[in-house]
Specification:
The chain is α/β, with parallel strands linked by helices. It has one domain: 3-Layer(aba) Sandwich (Rossmann fold). It has helices spanning about 5-20, 20-25, 50-55, 70-80, 120-130, 150-170, 185-190; strands at about 40, 60-65, 90-95, 105-115, 135-145, 190-200, 205-210. The longest helix is centred in the last third of the chain and has 21 residues, at about 150-170.
């Protein structure tokens, strides 16, 4: 997959399709993240969540990992424009979260907004496992993702949208993922529990905040 081809138009494509719904879902939990010390943000694209967190929390240290070099440049421009870019606080890292070297820090926040849907189940479990090896024991994980309700017209509505989106990104970004993965199972398997959940657009869009369950010990099998 390669999102360089859609980087410059992604934001406007998002607005055309969903208005501000995806943007609002990214920011649902921002007000409660003022105590975060170290954040790992994965696949933030043009940097909207990174900038918003840096504006809201002036002491947080952020490592933002993004696969697309063009998205990284957009994010850098956004941070500079909003006057929050400080290389001592914010690092923009170009790389694949499945293989990039993860800094040896105890992150107390992980954020993945509309990222899980690009992975197959096996790769997603690898990603969660790698990230779990560098989080603190009080880590929270903020997730925004597409979802398909199980029954009724909401199921048909969401399933149609998801099918259209996968077709578009298969053509535009060579995405080979066939369907939404079971990301909740991946988080649960590594000791996280959902503590808050909100939905929008008739259940198509879901924002959830997860936290390591009391007594759960982050695995340390993947130090890199």
């Amino acid at each position: 997959m390669n999102f360089d081809r859609v980087a410059w138009s992604y934001r406007w494509l998002e607005y055309v399709a969903f208005g501000r719904a995806l943007e609002r879902s990214r920011f649902v939990f921002l007000d409660g993240l003022g105590d975060v010390r170290r954040a790992l943000i994965i696949g933030d694209g043009d940097g909207r969540f990174t900038a918003a967190l840096a504006l809201r929390n002036r002491t947080v240290h952020i490592d933002s990992i993004e696969l697309s070099g063009r998205m990284i440049r957009l994010a850098s421009g956004r941070l500079i424009k909003q006057r929050v870019y400080n290389p001592d606080r914010i690092r923009l890292i170009e790389g694949d979260i499945r293989s990039v070297s993860l800094p040896n820090k105890d992150y107390d926040l992980v954020a993945t907004h509309f990222v899980f849907d690009v992975f197959r189940d096996l790769d997603l479990r690898l990603v969660v496992g790698r990230v779990n090896s560098v989080v603190s024991q009080r880590c929270r994980w903020a997730v925004s993702e597409f979802d398909i309700p199980q029954h009724g017209w909401r199921h048909a509505h969401a399933a149609s949208w998801v099918k259209i989106m996968y077709f578009f990104f298969r053509c535009a970004a060579r995405l080979d993922t066939p369907s939404l993965p079971n990301w909740r199972a991946g988080l649960e398997d590594h000791g996280f529990a959902c503590i808050h959940s909100e939905t929008a657009r008739a259940g198509l869009i879901r924002s959830e905040l997860w936290q390591l369950a009391p007594g759960a010990i982050p695995l340390r099998k993947h130090p890199g």
